[in-house]
Amino acid sequence: MDGKIKVKVILGSIRQNRFGERPATWINEELKSWDGVEAELLDLREYPMPLFDSPKSPSMMDMQYTDPILKKWSEKIREADAFIIVSPEYNHGYPGPLKNAIDWLFPEWNKKPVGFVSYGSAGGARAIEQLRQVAIELDMVPIRKSIHINWEFMMNSMKDKSITNADLFAPLRKGSGPDRLAVFMEDLLWMARALKAARGQ
User: What is the mean pLDDT of residues 83-103?
Assistant: First the structure.
């Protein structure tokens, strides 16, 4: 069994001038500093999948895809032990391209933990609540903790042209309690190790 925990950070927005590159890059770089973790950022712009139109449910497709982009997407998701989905909130929900990317697969997601980072109105809380429900239906294990980025923080951080400035996110780690990002990651990785062992991988 490979001891490394493979975490895929999924950037769920494909909009122009998107804010999501910043938290996704930040999270991905933070993960790389953790022992025993192999992190990779998956940008949905690099996986322009067709709209889901399969005559079969993904649960019945046995991971057999004819589209080369879907094959690549399936391989990336299949090799993961855990996921962090970074998503905006649009109209009390999450983006269509993210839903499409999720819906194309089924067994690749099963028995794996997922954590959520969201931004926008209400700190993306409503998008995360919807994503939790979808994750459960995919036989995933959503962790309790999440990272919420409010509108004011977004606007202030967008003044900095760099998408890799980790200092911008320092306020999200401070507060009256423990480091929120560290607790979030510890929970995700604990669950990832437990489920990986249970899957016999």
Answer: 97
d(CA 192, CA 80): 10
> From CA 116, how far away is CA 102, in angstroms rounded?
14
**Amino acid sitting at position 42:** L
Per-residue three-class SS string for 46-108:
HCCCCCCCCCCCHHHCCCCCCCHHHHHHHHHHHCCCEEEEEEECECCECCHHHHHHHHCCCHH
**This prediction's pTM:** 0.93
Domain with 155 in it: what CATH number?
A: 3.40.50.360
Burial 64-76 (b: 16+ CB within 10 A, else e): ebeeeebeebbeb
Q: By mean pLDDT, which of 16-20, 151-155, 196-200 is the weakest?
A: 151-155
Angle of helix 180-199 versus helix 21-32 axis, rounded to 10: 70
Domain holding 136, by residue range, is: 5-199
d(Cα 196, Cα 190) in Å, to the nearest integer?
A: 10
What's the rounded mean pLDDT across residues 94-111?
Answer: 98
Looking at residue 123, the DSSP 8-state letter turns out to be G
Give the number of other Cβ atoms within 10 Å of residue 36's Cβ: 9
Domain count of the chain?
1
